[in-house]
Each structure stands twice: as structure tokens, then as C-alpha cells.
Specification:
The chain is an alpha+beta fold. Helices cover 20% and strands 52% of the residues. It is built from 8 helices and 29 strands. Residues 1-22, 387-417 and 428-438 have low confidence and may be disordered.
Length: 555
């Protein structure tokens, strides 16, 4: 179930690190109201009562988000107390409800109720209206799901998440057009669930993660009606976000049951263990970047219906993706880097195709580092406004009828104009039929990117005793695009010939196919003097689409 919950996540985050406050309870409450309004939410209160230094607000409701992902929060009570030293203590009701609704990725309406429990929570706020700091302490943050309703059909969804011993600070300077930063640490995350879908396939899972920390900053551009649908506009107006998360050791188990494609019972179990990972995301008008890193991971799955257990693991993995998001005629930089080291497979997997252990089983690795520039022909994060069904087709049909009428009137007078109108209306009906076909098989939207140049800083693959390394640079010709690039690529190979021999000996490559494989290899690679097991390839791409390999034209 893929739910678009951008607004929902923002609302929950604000609830768990909120209270944009001042030194009096009234200012604390008002600043919170102003904040939610600035990001397009509505907030109402049932009543408020001031008794001495304590302000109590009851029956609070917060609602907002896009039509495709609405969020509503209901809080029985918030108590704000002047501590007498220029600070305010805020305590939220231990229990509150959350209602998520909208349209999922399959176009189906959904309703997802949840509860949020925060027993023993407290927050101390200090500062001035234009510069406030908040220190919070949440012994337990527990989110509980029970059901999900999709297109009117309710399905059980017992899933639980809990954060333990969460503390941190949140700071807001400048109000709705200022800067927000936060830093939060939690001792532990636990989760479990028992989910059965409409096909009676069941998955049970449980796990935990240690030592979680999140921190980040956000520059606010001013009032936003709906951040999810106005993200592109907000970025152009100065919205910038920078967040990081770090998680320690993780352990999880799962069991599944159901039926396979032949309607036969199937079941299994598995487990996941990781030493931890970290992530970093940045978003602004200048671009979007994701950086992920993982420490050692191991995974296994077993099933009576499987011929063997599936086990694998790796020592380290990382991803660095940087890309532009704003339209510009000037080329903008991008980057894609991925590294995986220490990849190992279980002996049971090896035994299926190499029972005699003829292939080296050393850990495999992959390293890719590509940079370049590209033009962005449209803003990626702009969400087009919805159009009424048939409105565009109707306008097109009317325009076609008017144009045909005018042309016929100029040529043959009123009689021809009437005939042309009838024909245009008939064409409009045909267009409507075509439109229905197009709706059933929509045309692919053209890519928003136009690559200008590409540099292969590193491509390195090492596995089963062989290795490949490549570097190079390509660019679009002056009168063309990257479908016919200009540039060079240099590649080196080691252990390939020995690997082919072993594959032949294992029967994975037939003897009558070896000659073809070696001939193909000889077309693109040549041996290095003094080292016959090392091969090199120099590819040259020339203007006009010509391609040369080691000086020989192959295209």
C-alpha cells in the first residue's frame, strides 16, 4: 500500500517537536496556530480556560493536506503553564487520534485511522516570539494502526510503532518566514504487525532498532496553502530543507503464508540483521540530493516450498544521488555514486550452480561513480492542477468545429459552413473515441532531462575471480543529443579468460558457444603485452555516430 503522506508526515513531525512558543502560555498557543496556518492547515479549539498561570485548551482539531493525502488530528487537551522564570511548560494529552485519508497510487480512496500515545510528555519553551527554543522529553511515542479502508472495504491492519526515551530541541527564528532547526535522539524503536491482504496472504513481522537520531533545518518561505501541491513554488520562493538520520543496530524477523501462482499453499520465514545506517537529504531550488550509507547487513529466508534457504550479506553499501529539479536553459550538475563491498552468498546458493566449488567465492564488490551536467526542461516538483474529465477534449472539439466552420465559410458560404460544422462534430466524436483509447493506453510523458555531458569517474566490478574497471567521458555533439555522444571510454579486464574456461568446465557455457564468445570478446578487447590475462578496450565515439573499438570501426 503506497500512500502519499507528505502532508501527514509533516503534521506528525510538527506534533512531536512543535510548540513554536514564547514566554507566556497565550503566545505559545498562538504561535502554534500561526505555524499550522502558514503551511495550509486549519486549527480549531473547543474551549480554553485560564486559571492562574495555566492555560488549558481543549478539543483541538487540526486538518490539512492535499485532496490525495488529507490528515486530521484530534487532541482532547493541551496544558500550557508559565513556570515563573520566563519559560512555558507544555504538556499534550497522553492520547490523541490521527485520521489519514486520500487516494493511493492505484487511484483508490483510502481511510487510515491511527492513535498516537505520548504518556509523560513535556516540553519547555523559552525565548522571544521571533526567536524561540524548545526542549522536549517524550518517554514514549507510540503509533497504533488497527484498520485500513480502501474503496469502502475495511481490512484489519494491526501495526504498531514505538519510540522510547526521545529527547531533543527545536528552534524557530523569524516565524513563518524564518528558519526552523531540530535535533532529536531516541534510545530505541520497536515495531510489529500482523497483516492479511484481500487475497488472504499474511505477513507477520517484528523488530527493533537502537540509538536513533534525527536532525535538520528548514528555511520557510512564508505562508503555503498546501506544501504537497505547491512544493515547486515554495522552492522557488526560498524553501530549503536539510535533514539527516542515523540508526544503530537493527534486527527484524518475519513470517509469511498464502498461495502461489498455482493456488498452492506457501509459507516461510526470514530475518534481517544490520549494524546500522545513516541517511541525508537536501532539497532546495538548486537541487535534490540523497545520501545513504549502510554498515554490515545479513538476510535470510527459508520456506518449505523453496529448494534451499536464501542467505546473503554485505559489509558496506552507499548511495549518493544529486540531481537538479528546477527548469533552466543552463546545464546543471548531477551525480550518481553507488558502492557495494563484501557481498557474499550462502553456500546453498553456490551449490545450485557450482557444487564442486570451481569458482572463487571471494566477496564481490561494485563501485559506480558518474557525474555530468544536464538541462531541465520543466520544473520537476510542480504539480499540475487537476482538470475536469472531458474539459480538454470538449474544448479541442469546439475549437476544431469553429476552425472548420470559418474555413468553409471563407470558401463556399453558409452551406459549406454548415456541412463543415457537421463534419467537425463527427470528427469530435471520433476524437472522443480516440481519447478513450488514449486514456486506456496513455502516452509516455517525455523526459524532463536533456543530458549534456557524462563522466565515468569509476566503474569497477569484482566477482568470481574476474574484475572490470572503466573510466571515460562523453558529451552531446553541438548539433545533436546524447543518443549519439562524442568521447572516449577506457576499460580494463582481468581474469575474464580464466573465468570463461571455468564456466565451460562447469557446463554453463557449451563448447560450441565458446568460439563465438571469444570472437566477440576479441572484437572489443585486446590483451596487454606481458599479461595475457589482462585485456583492455578503448572505445571512441565520433561526431556523426561512428564508434571505434581499439582503432577498428564497429559502427
Amino acid at each position: 500500500m503506497n500512500l502519499r503522506l507528505t502532508s501527514s508526515a509533516l503534521a506528525l513531525a510538527a506534533m512531536t517537536a512543535p510548540a513554536f512558543a514564547d514566554v507566556t502560555p497565550e503566545q505559545v498557543w498562538q504561535s502554534w496556530v500561526d505555524y499550522y496556518k502558514s503551511v495550509g492547515y486549519t486549527i480549531t479549539e473547543g474551549s480554553r480556560d485560564k486559571s492562574g498561570s495555566t492555560l488549558t485548551v481543549k478539543d483541538i482539531k487540526i486538518a490539512g493536506g492535499a485532496e490525495a493525502s488529507r490528515v486530521g488530528l484530534s487532541l482532547p487537551e493541551i496544558v500550557l503553564t508559565d513556570t515563573g522564570d520566563g519559560k512555558v511548560k507544555t504538556v499534550f494529552a497522553d492520547h490523541m487520534t490521527v485520521d489519514l485519508s486520500g487516494t493511493n497510487a492505484d487511484g483508490k480512496n483510502y481511510e487510515l485511522p491511527a492513535t498516537l500515545d505520548m504518556p509523560g510528555n513535556s516540553m519547555i519553551s523559552s525565548g522571544a516570539p521571533e526567536d524561540m527554543t524548545h526542549e522536549f522529553n517524550y518517554p514514549t511515542l507510540k503509533v497504533t494502526l488497527t484498520t485500513v479502508t480502501t474503496d469502502g472495504k475495511q481490512t484489519p491492519l494491526p501495526v504498531n510503532f514505538a519510540l522510547l526515551d526521545s529527547t531533543g530541541t527545536a528552534h524557530l527564528a523569524g516565524g513563518a518566514t524564518g528558519k526552523y532547526d531540530y535535533d532529536m535522539s531516541s534510545a530505541k524503536l520497536t515495531f510489529d504487525g500482523d497483516v492479511t491482504d484481500e487475497n488472504q496472504e499474511n505477513v507477520k513481522f517484528a523488530g527493533s532498532a537502537e540509538k536513533l537520531s534525527t536532525k535538520g533545518t528548514m528555511n520557510l518561505p512564508g505562508k503555503i496553502a498546501d506544501l504537497e501541491t505547491e512544493l515547486g513554488t515554495a522552492l522557488r520562493n526560498g524553501l530549503a530543507m536539510d535533514g539527516a538520520v542515523q540508526i544503530g543496530p537493527i534486527a527484524a524477523t518475519f513470517q509469511f503464508s498464502g498461495k502461489d501462482e498455482n493456488d498452492q499453499p506457501t509459507s516461510g520465514a526470514g530475518k534481517y540483521e544490520g549494524k546500522g545506517f545513516d541517511g541525508h537529504i537536501k532539497m532546495s531550488q538548486d537541487g535534490l540530493s540523497y545520501q545513504l550509507g549502510s554498515d554490515p547487513v545479513s538476510f535470510e529466508i527459508t520456506s518449505p516450498q523453496m529448494p534451499m534457504p536464501i542467505r546473503y550479506g554485505f559489509d558496506k553499501a552507499s548511495l549518493d544521488l544529486q540531481m537538479p529539479v528546477s527548469k533552466s536553459d543552463t546545464p546543471q550538475p548531477f551525480k550518481l555514486a553507488y558502492a557495494l563491498s563484501g557481498l557474499t552468498l550462502g553456500d546453498e546458493i553456490w551449490a545450485t550452480f557450482d557444487p564442486e566449488a570451481k569458482l572463487p567465492r571471494d566477496p564481490a564488490s561494485l563501485d559506480i561513480d558518474v557525474t555530468g551536467t544536464m538541462k531541465v526542461i520543466r520544473d520537476l516538483l510542480d504539480v499540475p492542477p487537476p482538470k475536469a474529465d472531458g474539459a480538454s477534449d470538449q474544448a479541442t472539439d469546439e475549437a476544431a468545429a469553429d476552425a472548420a466552420t470559418d474555413q468553409a465559410a471563407d470558401q463556399s458560404g453558409d452551406q459549406a459552413a454548415d456541412a463543415a460544422t457537421d463534419q467537425a462534430e463527427a470528427d469530435g466524436m471520433d476524437d472522443g473515441m480516440d481519447g478513450a483509447t488514449d486514456e486506456a493506453q496513455p502516452e509516455e510523458e517525455p523526459s524532463p532531462f536533456e543530458p549534456v555531458d557524462l563522466t565515468i569517474n569509476q566503474f569497477a566490478l569484482k566477482a568470481v575471480g574476474a574484475s572490470i574497471q572503466a573510466t571515460g567521458a562523453l558529451k552531446a555533439p553541438e548539433s545533436g543529443d546524447m543518443t549519439m555522444p562524442v568521447g572516449n571510454i577506457h576499460a580494463e579486464y582481468e581474469g575474464v579468460s580464466a573465468l570463461i574456461d571455468k564456466l565451460v568446465g562447469m557446463g554453463l557455457i557449451q563448447q560450441d558457444q565458446v568460439m563465438g564468445v571469444r570472437m566477440m570478446l576479441a572484437m572489443f578487447a585486446k590483451p596487454v603485452d606481458g599479461n595475457p590475462d589482462k585485456l583492455v578496450t578503448d572505445l571512441e565515439f565520433k561526431d556523426g555516430g561512428q564508434v571505434f573499438a581499439n582503432g577498428q570501426q564497429i559502427k
